[in-house]
Amino acid sequence: MKKKIPDKTVQRLSVYYRCLYFLSQQGTGEISSKSLADLLEMKPDQVRKDLSYFGKFGKRGSGYYVPDLVQQIAKILGLEHGRKVAVVGMGNLGTALAAYKGFEVLGFNVVATFDVSPQKIGKKIRGVMCYGMKDLNKVIKEKNIEMALLTVPPEVVQEVTSAIVAAGIKAILNFSSVTLNVPKGVKASDVDLASELKSLSYFMTTSNR
Amino acid sequence: MKKKIPDKTVQRLSVYYRCLYFLSQQGTGEISSKSLADLLEMKPDQVRKDLSYFGKFGKRGSGYYVPDLVQQIAKILGLEHGRKVAVVGMGNLGTALAAYKGFEVLGFNVVATFDVSPQKIGKKIRGVMCYGMKDLNKVIKEKNIEMALLTVPPEVVQEVTSAIVAAGIKAILNFSSVTLNVPKGVKASDVDLASELKSLSYFMTTSNR
DNA sequence: CACACTTTGTGAAATAATTCACAAGGTGTC
DNA sequence: GACACCTTGTGAATTATTTCACAAAGTGTG
Ligand SMILES: NC(=O)c1ccc[n+]([C@@H]2O[C@H](COP(=O)([O-])OP(=O)(O)OC[C@H]3O[C@@H](n4cnc5c(N)ncnc54)[C@H](O)[C@@H]3O)[C@@H](O)[C@H]2O)c1
Ligand SMILES: NC(=O)c1ccc[n+]([C@@H]2O[C@H](COP(=O)([O-])OP(=O)(O)OC[C@H]3O[C@@H](n4cnc5c(N)ncnc54)[C@H](O)[C@@H]3O)[C@@H](O)[C@H]2O)c1
């Protein structure tokens, strides 16, 4: 029964979640794959196919019951119980991320931040303490932190990665443009803004939609 | 002769560029698709196939001459002459982006920032002035700005998008999790950190590499 | 309850992307 | 210059993803 689920499907699941969460807040009861697809500018077939990888959540004739579907997707994505997140590297970007309120509603709670600079250590952002790197192990284990947003300078990325993996971090969102080397069992993913800009630039020069 | 070039290929081109640029700085002369692929943890076939969409840049027996290839890719991506960029919405994230030095070396120059808040207007970050939204048209036209990093609150994203498109912006990198509505001829692309986190969370629960 | 309409879930078909495999060149050594 | 060894560029094969198309079910109206 183990059919492999495309990465693309998982990514789209995140998008569905955002939209459905919003709809559930609005009090929407049921929605058809058609309406959801319209909202997201995609095809209904795609929506149904994606959901069908994980089960049968809909009802023929009427569609999907939004509150239930939100729950189901949250479960699939592992968002039901909230995930504890650390920000490592409290520079410009790290500070912005730590200050951002938008992650919380999705169940991602920044519960600690880390830096090497004595100027940063001991400061609080939104009530969250900035620890020194020597407390990495202790704090990550104590607070049971699973994910890290990695915003340190490129030169130290690999070294810091090793340290946080050793401390028990299981997933890393990496903002430097350095390819991360992580052991099996740890998932890393890159946010490469420079590459995004370059792609945009390409499409500007060719100007095909 | 118009074979369609996959989006994925363009994205990877950005990655090759970053790596090759770095290598050229190091003084590397030639590199084989194999070595480049190893560096990026991918297959040589993929590298060659991607490059072959745009021309024949290599030499059999020895590989690609790095300085030339960097040039060629820069040209393909439209990076030769530099692109002027504006940051719109100088909150936490916008400020971090405007302060970032890493875009410049790639030919992306932040030459203006915008906000509505009187507290932000008139301030300078890295020597770049923050203008009010009423100056949008004037400044974008005067400075010939083509791209925008959009970091305003979700509620006003669509409204602000319309304004900057009207002012002449041709490409937008959108950081809100709101799907942008842009006219044909304008390219928009989303950086959705929340979705990235959700995907990571999924892979953590299933823990398949 | 019959019938006209919706909508899901899913194999099968169509498209798209990646990987293979190899001919055609190039390099270097003796 | 002959031989052993690399490396590119690219059709063809393979694999992945999307789209199609339709049976099976649910809704609602009179
Ligand atoms: N700021 C941006 O908009 C932006 C955009 C794209 C990519 N990035 C990338 O994100 C990363 C951070 O960017 P930034 O602009 O916030 O840089 P920054 O210099 O403002 O912040 C880096 C922080 O990391 C801390 N640090 C340094 N060494 C450390 C270590 N060994 N352990 C823990 N902390 C350490 C520093 O004290 C500093 O606070 C960089 O890799 C950069 O390339 C940033
Ligand atoms: N900060 C983050 O780490 C983060 C992460 C993910 C997504 N985002 C998204 O990025 C956007 C910005 O986030 P932020 O944390 O920087 O928010 P912020 O509130 O700190 O900044 C928003 C800025 O936009 C300005 N603004 C408001 N209305 C405007 C208008 N009509 N025209 C021009 N400027 C206007 C505000 O004055 C403010 O300076 C949001 O859409 C947010 O959802 C932020």
Write the layout of secondary structure elements.
Two copies of one chain form a homodimer.
Chain A: H1 7-25, E1 30-31, H2 33-39, H3 44-52, E2 58-59, E3 63-65, H4 66-77, E4 83-88, H5 92-99, E5 108-115, E6 124-125, E7 128-132, H6 136-143, E8 147-150, H7 157-167, E9 171-174, E10 187-190, H8 193-206
Parallel strand pairs in A: 4-5, 4-8, 5-7, 8-9, 9-10
Antiparallel strand pairs in A: 1-3, 2-3, 6-7
The structure holds nicotinamide-adenine-dinucleotide (2 copies).
One nicotinamide-adenine-dinucleotide sits between chains A (88-94, 114-117, 120, 133, 151-154, 156, 160, 175-176, 193) and B (96-97, 100, 102).
Chain A binds a DNA duplex (30 and 30 nucleotides) through helix 3 and strand 2.
> Quaternary status of these chains?
homodimer
Largest sheet of chain A, in brief, is: 7 strands, mixed
Strand fraction of chain A equals 15-25%
**What is the CATH superfamily classification of the largest domain in chain A?**
NAD(P)-binding Rossmann-like Domain
Helix content of chain A: 40-55%
For the largest interface, the chains and their residue counts are: A-B, 57 and 57 residues
Please give the alpha-carbon distance between the first and last residues of chain A: 39 Å
